[in-house]
Amino acid sequence: MNNYNLLIGKHEAICQTIAECFAKKHGMYLEYWVGDEVGGLACFGDHYFFNVNDMTEDLKHNYPKGAILDWFDDRLENKAEINLRTYIKLKQQ
């Protein structure tokens, strides 16, 4: 095993932990990683799809429970592109 494999293994373990913490916060379960690419796009409850950056943003800033789910649904329903941080700020006004 080379150093890259060790680093990638650690990265995947951290991403898995982030996804599990995120799922627990929102009362969901991690269904799978799209394409079995841990650290890419994760599916929760066979409906919601989030990347690690969005999950990390949610946990780091302790956004209200469910707010990221509303963001996901609103983006689908309205075909709007708005980042999570801006969405949260607008909802808090």
What would you say this structure looks like, in words?
With 93 residues, the chain is of the alpha+beta class. Helix content is 57%, strand content 13%. The protein is built from four helices and three strands. The protein has helices at residues 3-25, 52-60, 67-78, 84-92, and strands at residues 30-33, 41-44, 48-51. The protein has a three-stranded antiparallel beta sheet with strand order 1-2-3. Strand 1 (30-33) and strand 2 form a beta hairpin. Helix 1 (3-25) crosses helix 2. The longest helix has 23 residues, at 3-25. It starts with a helix and ends with a helix. The relative contact order is 0.12.
Can you summarize this structure?
The protein is 57% helix and 13% strand. The chain is α+β, with helices and mostly antiparallel strands and 93 residues long. It is elongated and about 50 Å long.
Task: Tag the structure with descriptive keywords.
4 helices, alpha+beta, 57% helix, 93 residues
* Approximate strand percentage: 5-15%
Give the CA-CA distance, first to last residue.
51 Å
Strand order of the largest sheet: 1-2-3
Low-pLDDT parts are: none
Number of alpha- plus pi-helical segments: 4
Anisotropy-based shape: elongated
* Counted beta strands: 3
What are the secondary-structure elements, in order, as H or E? HEEEHHH
Largest sheet descriptor: 3 strands, antiparallel
State the helicity in percent bands: 55-70%
Mean pLDDT: 94
SS content category: alpha+beta
* Gyration radius, rounded: 14 Å
